[in-house]
Lysophospholipase L1-like esterase
Amino acid sequence: MQKLRSVLAAAALAVTATLTAAAPAQAAGVIPGEYVALGDSFASGVGAPPYLPEADPEDPCRNSEHSYPRTWAGRNPGFTLVDMTCSGATIAEVRAEQMSALSGRTTLVTVTVGGNDDGFTDTARTCVLGSDAQCKAATDLGAYVARTTLADALAALYTDIRLRAPRAQILVLGYPRLVDEGTGSCGAIGLSALKRKQITHNADHLAAGIADAAGRAGVRFVEMRLPFIGHEACTPISTEWIHGVSSNVDLAHQTFHPKKHGHAVVYTYMLGAEILKL
């Protein structure tokens, strides 16, 4: 695991430098047409307000104009975006509430989902408010689930997306590491060194599980840990691209989610760069 951290950290230096430029705009290997975005809060743009008006304010999806699907589609007018993303979405909810948008007309699909099935909210709450031992137990369980049942469920989901959208290029965007393992402030509540290490442990296994599922289903996985290295929560506020812990109850939903730059620049750049490889 330490070797992986070193490799990612070294590569991140080169990637981070490119993020100051505009994100790639051309969809080289994708047929212009219908773009369907599926997924959870990391796809809908949570953490980058303001959010679009909600059809049901009591059940908010928190879709932001700064989300990577909306930012990328805005730079590629040859694509018509159908944004089905919604904060809190699970694999089952993507199946039940989002996949109906897919069809033979769809030429591009992006997906970010699985974190909620892996217990994102409960694990984050446990690590923020619980003991070191409780955090370790929660993250160890999340790491195990990510490499086993979650990977199987995601592989089946990606396969079904391919069947529903046979003409589409399908890109699976993963999740970043959420916290820096140093000693910087994490916002309203501090996190011990062990908790930070365990949160990263879970994130690495989640990435591995998603990558495994994508490989089995024959779709493309876009690694999102690398470009956020050095910019996670608990890094200096001037370089932080992921929200730390908020003491404001109205902003608690943003905890450990990308800020505007993370969504509109980093995620969007990585999506555009991957599309250029197609």
User: Anything to note?
Assistant: The chain has one domain: 2-19+30-277. Residues 193-217 form the longest helix (25 residues). The chain has a mean pLDDT of 91.
